[in-house]
Structure formats: C-alpha cells, structure tokens
C-alpha cells in the first residue's frame, strides 16, 4: 500500500466507492486548478448537483484513450487535424497541452439532457458500457447515445504525454484498481478558479481526500 | 411597440442593455424548460457567475446561422452527416429537434477557459467579432479562438424550422433590434429542470422579465 499524504490507496478507493468526491489539484505553474472528482460507477443526481453547485465547472466524463477507441471515439484535435476549416482552430491552450475532449453526448433515454438526473443517467450509461461485458461496444455506443449532447467525454493520453486533470484522475483509478471511469468538474471561485488554499479548506470541511499532481506522479 | 405580457419591446431592450437577464420558458409539451438569457454585449464575469450559480445549465453563446457561416462554422449535425463513424450519433432528442450546437471554443487570451472571467472573455470576444466591422470574420475567428474549448456556440435555424431556446432567444434579439448575440443557460432545480412556477418566482423576486415561447411566436 503506497502512502500518499498519510492516506492509503485503500482509503482513497473506499472513499470513491462510497460515492464521496476527491479534490485533485494539478501542479503549481500549470493550470493551478482543483477539480472535484467522483468515481462514475457511484454517480447519482446528487453527485451532479454537488459538482455544479460546489465545483461549478464543466461536468465531464473521463476515461482512457484505449476505452474511447473501443467505442469509436477519437480526440477532437485528431478528428479536426485534416478538416479543411476547423484545423485552424486546433491550438495549444496557454497551459501548454492539447485539450482532452472527444465529443459531447447524451444517452437516448434522457429528456433535455442537462438536469442533474439526466446528466447522471448519461454518465452511468457510459460507465456501464465501458465496464460491462458488452461484445461490440462501438455498436452499442452508436445505438444508445447521441451527439452533440451535454456530457463532454475526455480521454487520458497517459501522464507521460500530458499532465492534466484528465490524466491524473485516470491514473488515480489505475492506482486504486478501479476502471478508468471518472467524473470531474473544475472548482471555481467568484470570477477566477478557486485558489488552492480554498480548495483544501473545502476538502477539510467536508472531510474529503485532497490530492495533488506531484504526489500522484510519484506513486 | 408590440405589447408582450404588459411589457413593451423597448423595456425588454432596456433590460438587456442594462445587463439584466431575461427568463425565457419554451413551450408546454416541448422541453418545458426556462433559460436565463443575457445580451452578450453586456456580459461580465458576474453574469457568468449568475448563470452558473442561479441557472446551473450549460453557459452557451447564441447567434444566427448566417453569422455562424460568416466565421466558418456549421451545425455539428451537418458536419457529421458524412462522418464514417459519428454519423450514427446524429439522432433527434426526445423533444423532437436536432441540437443547435456548432462547436465549443475559447478565446486565445484565456487561462484555463472555464473561470467566470475566462468564459466572459470568450463570450465578449465572440460578440465583438460578430458585431464589429471586421473585413474577414472567418480569418479573424480562426486566428483568435481555439477548439475544443469551454463555450458551446449555438446557432438559430429560425422559428419556422425549430422552436428551441436558441431560436426564441435569437428572435428576441431581432424583435428588440439588437444583434443576434446572446448568452443562455438552462435553469435547473435539484435533480430536475426548474419548474415553470419556480422560474416565474425567480423572475418576480429578482424583478426580471419572464417571457414564454407562445408570446414570442405571436409577436
């Protein structure tokens, strides 16, 4: 069991499986942003409610690029590399890495797609698809989801290639022995991203695990 | 001056230009959802803050399809019609209309793209691009924005073709004589979309104009 700021991996896993969020800060000098993170297998409308009210950023589904390929999805930065017009829009953001967005989807069962319960449904259906024993995942995905929708799907390129929340969060799943199937949203303050100290305070008050990139990298 | 629930168009315009949001409900039997709506030309970080905290849905930029074409953008449902894989994801949502999403962008000046002030910057820069006298708008857009980003751009197909918030809000701009350059987010309750009565109550309490689709159609 690797020790991480006094927390064992089994405690982190227990938290996630209990449906409690982690708070994950990336790195000083990169985005300097904390994300609220749930394990997708536990997500209910209450998790989405907490993500939008207490975190405030985009509520995104995170998986690995290998899983994404199994359901037929590529990075938009790759999709648009050869697009006659949109290729001009592919640029590196100021923090230096290409975005990890693939596509925005809804499950076919939802109403408008945006309510807490609709977003929870889309997330749980993505989770089930990627973790259940389904023979042809791509066919299943294409039949049961539609795009453009309200849940951005992000995929990890691995920490060797990119050091964003997407990769950190996928890595946490690997470290604790869960499928790479997570949900994240950026924690925002009034006007700006929530400062690290305030994100730590939120974690303390709500008795949540607070992790940072350099600890995750070092594990 | 057309009368609308006792409100004149000049009062609606004044509200919008003062940076106050309208609350716009679509139709019974359609989404049955209320959106919070700002004129993009007045948007500051405080507007984005109010959209994410009091409304809670996706903070989207709305324009017309003619303006979108001028900056090189198409509906994703058209872009993907011929895509070998993604064409299977194009489906009509349960409320019956194809989505009005074009693309998700950030302005090149932003930091992570998601904070209130970053989203306000992207919105104001989209507004300036579409309303200023810029010779080659597409070139300007491709140079100064990147994708995938954090602000979904929606375009109105016109109310004859689609009766969503995108079209209703673009129509309001036309009716009051402003450019089609608006910002919207769905109003959410705990778990479900905010009920119409609660959206009306929010409007009353905050002295905001409440409009509904059938009034806008009839104008």
Detailed description of the structure:
With 219 residues, the first copy, chain A, is an alpha+beta fold. The first copy, chain A, has a single domain, classed as DHBP synthase (Alpha-Beta Complex), CATH 3.90.870. The model of chain A has no long low-confidence stretch (mean pLDDT 95). The first copy, chain A, is built from nine helices and nine strands. In chain A, helix 2 packs across helix 5. The N and C termini of chain A lie close together (10 Å). In chain A, the strands form two sheets. In chain A, strands 6-7-5-8-4-3-9 form a seven-stranded mixed beta sheet. In chain A, strands 1-2 form a two-stranded antiparallel ribbon. At the A-B interface, helix 2, strand 6, helix 6 and strand 7 of A face helix 2, strand 6, helix 6 and strand 7 of B.
Nutshell version of this structure?
By secondary structure, chain A is of the alpha+beta class. Chain A is about 35% helix and about 20% strand.
Topology of helices and strands:
2 copies of one chain form a homodimer.
Chain A: E1 3-4, E2 7-8, H1 9-17, E3 22-25, E4 34-39, H2 45-55, E5 60-64, H3 65-70, H4 76-79, E6 101-107, H5 116-131, H6 137-144, E7 145-156, H7 165-176, E8 182-186, H8 196-205, E9 210-212, H9 213-217
Parallel strand pairs in A: 3-9, 5-7
Antiparallel strand pairs in A: 1-2, 3-4, 4-8, 5-8, 6-7
